[in-house]
Amino acid sequence: MQIEQPDLFGTPHQRALQLAADIALPSAFSEWLVANWHIWDRFLQLSEQMRLKGRKYYAARTVIEVMRWHYHLHDTTDKAFVHNNNWTPMLARLYNAYSGADFFQTREHGGRVPLDP
Prior knowledge:
Elements: H1 12-22, H2 27-35, H3 37-52, H4 60-74, H5 88-99
Helix pairs in contact: 1-2, 1-5, 3-4
């Protein structure tokens, strides 16, 4: 008989939502995340594969583009891969918090640098 240990962090999705709140990602991102767990799950899987292969850093946009490419390659409905690129930096921040690694380099501000200092 196998005894199931309780998960101290809840489900992986609950943990991701809690981390998104802990690192102060916008609530709109959390709402998007709940509606798009399939994107987060695949982003997490591909990022882990690359990190565990030994890469110290990687580009989150590259992971999204690989996802987009695979979707279009295998899709038979001619539907577009719908992903607002504005969410990509937040996926990177969430992955870093989730994995405990600084795999994706992110900006402090999370936005554009002003032209006039």
